[in-house]
């Protein structure tokens, strides 16, 4: 016995229960919609259940069809949040620039949107009437509607920009690579706060001497990261420094810098050494120097030494970590000579200090050498110029479509 039904449209409406039992059931349709309006939707099988789409576009995941009427593309390929100038004072692009190209038709109003994995984070209206052949420029400063900037959204390829009139849409990926892969930056422009993550590669350099160490590598690692936070942040929290902030375009920002220890996308390896012997050992970090300065790099190890027999060694080790790791930071934006010449306070090859007296008041630069005294712990900090240079290292090279 067979039942055959053929019709242009078939509508089944059941007000109570509908039960269909069969040995085999085959149904095919261009579109299938199954919806439970009140209670749970239950799909059960005594064997496995397979649901799979075989449409011709099934393999084109998350790739919208290109609009034949309009197009959006990226115009400029570099970007620095807040337009922070380079170390040499060169101006940078403070905004990402797009072009909207009208190919056919007329659009009385368009909307420009930026989405983070499909969720809208920014939008603005284009109210100008645009017709075929018109090109409209639009700029975005990288901040969400909540005035938050996050470099990870760019480097993790999470952003798209689109232009739409509600019916016709064109979009482009917004992705990029930081000039320096070991930095992430997040900016809260409402509260004028910048959070910086610096990835470092700290290794266990072992123990020198026969006395049992009082600190493990884990403790040295923790102190080293504390040094980055204490001496590279400018948080307006240092009681003996009134200038503990940075100024960008006339506005004051607090900057908090935190280090994390990882081998992934990190600064060159630095060994943490525990020295329990009577002989004082010097810390150094030549890193990847080149040219004449490579002489220094060949004879100086990349290490921060905890000299257990010295006075105030905990504070010294924390500050020294900030200084030695700081060499890689300032080298990135200022070059080898600026870094290993200690910003003009020493001979970059011989590492001997020039005449440079410790300031009697105000800031003491964690990256300079002082010829008459050691650092003043409470006044030592990375200079505003260097912290701005660190922020500049987050410069993005935007991948064009």
Produce a short descriptive summary.
The chain has 401 residues and is an alpha+beta fold. The protein is built from six helices and 22 strands. It starts with 69 loop residues before the first strand and ends with a strand.
Oligomer: single chain
Largest pleated sheet: 5 strands, mixed
Structural class: alpha+beta
SSE order: EEEEEEEEEHEEEEEEHEEEHEHHEEHE
- The shape is elongated
Looking across the biggest beta sheet, what order are the strands in?
9-13-14-17-16
Count of discrete alpha- or pi-helical segments spanning 4 or more residues: 6
Helix content: 10-25%
DSSP E strands, number: 22
Task: Characterise the protein shown here.
It is a single chain. A hairpin with a 4-residue loop joins strand 10 and strand 11 (169-174). This protein is elongated. It is α+β, with helices and mostly antiparallel strands. Strands 9-13-14-17-16 form a five-stranded mixed beta sheet. The chain has a four-stranded antiparallel beta sheet with strand order 6-5-10-11, with no helix packed on it. A three-stranded antiparallel beta sheet has the order 1-3-8, with no helix packed on it. It has six helices and 22 strands.
């Amino acid at each position: 016995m067979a039942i055959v039904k053929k019709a242009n449209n078939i509508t089944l409406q059941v007000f109570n229960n509908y039960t269909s039992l069969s040995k085999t059931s085959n149904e095919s349709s261009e579109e299938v919609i199954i919806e439970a309006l009140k209670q749970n939707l239950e799909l059960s099988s005594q064997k496995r259940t397979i649901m799979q789409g075989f449409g011709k576009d099934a393999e084109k995941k998350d790739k919208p069809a290109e609009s034949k009427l309009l197009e959006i593309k990226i115009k400029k390929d570099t970007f620095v949040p807040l337009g922070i100038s380079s170390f040499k004072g060169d101006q940078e692009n403070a905004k990402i620039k797009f072009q909207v190209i009208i190919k056919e038709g007329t659009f009385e109003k368009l909307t420009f949107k930026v989405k983070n994995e499909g969720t809208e984070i920014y939008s603005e209206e284009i109210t100008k009437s645009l017709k075929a052949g018109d090109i409209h420029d639009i700029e975005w400063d990288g901040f969400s509607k909540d005035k938050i900037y996050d470099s990870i959204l760019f480097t993790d390829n999470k952003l798209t920009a689109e232009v739409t009139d509600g019916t016709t849409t064109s979009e482009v990926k917004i992705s990029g690579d930081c000039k320096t892969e070991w930095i992430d930056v997040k900016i809260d422009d409402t509260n004028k706060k910048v959070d910086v993550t610096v990835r470092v590669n700290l290794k266990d350099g072992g123990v020198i001497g026969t006395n049992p160490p009082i600190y493990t590598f884990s403790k040295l690692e923790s102190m080293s990261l504390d040094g980055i936070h204490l001496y590279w942040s400018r948080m307006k929290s240092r009681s003996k420094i009134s200038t503990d902030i940075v100024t960008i375009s006339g506005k004051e920002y607090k900057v908090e810098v935190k280090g994390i220890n990882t081998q992934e996308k990190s600064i060159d390896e630095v060994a943490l050494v525990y020295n329990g012997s009577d002989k004082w050992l010097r810390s150094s970090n030549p890193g990847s120097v080149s040219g004449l300065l490579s002489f220094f790099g060949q004879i100086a190890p990349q290490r921060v030494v905890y000299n257990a027999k010295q006075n105030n060694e905990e504070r010294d080790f924390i500050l020294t970590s900030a200084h030695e790791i700081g060499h890689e930071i300032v080298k990135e934006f200022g070059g080898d000579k600026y870094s290993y010449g200690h910003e003009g306070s020493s001979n970059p090859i011989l590492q001997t200090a020039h005449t440079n007296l410790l300031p009697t008041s105000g800031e003491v630069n964690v990256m300079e050498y002082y010829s008459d005294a050691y650092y003043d712990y409470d006044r030592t900090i990375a200079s505003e110029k260097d912290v701005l240079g660190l922020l500049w290292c987050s410069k993005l090279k935007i991948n064009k479509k």
